[in-house]
Design goal:
This protein has 186 residues and is of the alpha+beta class. The protein has helices at 2-9, 117-126, 170-185, and strands at residues 30-31, 48-52, 55-59, 78-84, 90-94, 105-108, 144-152. The strands form two sheets. A five-stranded mixed beta sheet has the order 1-6-5-2-3. The longest helix has 16 residues, at 170-185. The protein is globular, with a radius of gyration of 16 Å. Mean pLDDT is 63; it is low at 1-27 and 147-186. Residues 1-17 form the signal peptide. It comes from Cyclocybe aegerita. Keywords: Signal.
Amino acid sequence: MLATSSFLFLLPALAAAQYGGYGAPVGPTTTTAAAVTVPSAPPDTPGQMNSAFESPCVHLAATSDSPTGFDSGLTQASTFTINITDTQPIWFHCKMATHCLSGMVGSINAPPTGNTFDAFMTAARASTSPTEPDNGPVLGGVHGVAIAGPTSSTGTSTGGGTSGAVKVTGSTGAALLSVVLAFFLA
């Protein structure tokens, strides 16, 4: 995993917003992405939901000034694509019951001082927000617009449609390439 994480830092165009769970990070918990780059949520996360820094474990609700935040829905083995529309911080959390309260949060473009990722994670762990219902994917978002709903990487069982089994995402390709590089550099 160290080779994969290290290699992903060398490929900013393939930035993947990952976050740790239960106090044990599984990869970089925050990333920086310029406008128009498209990170994908890791396929092994059950659900990502846009939130505000002030309310880390609450879905970002629509206001008169902005749309509702993105929500991948509770799904695994899928990729959820977000188009980064500017360089403002984007805060998100895992919507699975108790995950956010355990620190499964993440950020894109978090500032190094003030409202930092560490402050966001601390606030999430101190949160008393109730579990949110799963109403399925919500496209849209603030500073990061979900442009494609979750797509399965395991294919379909009905035989209809297009199989997702042959799809290789940027993060999967980067992971495979880093494994090959680690093998040759070892």
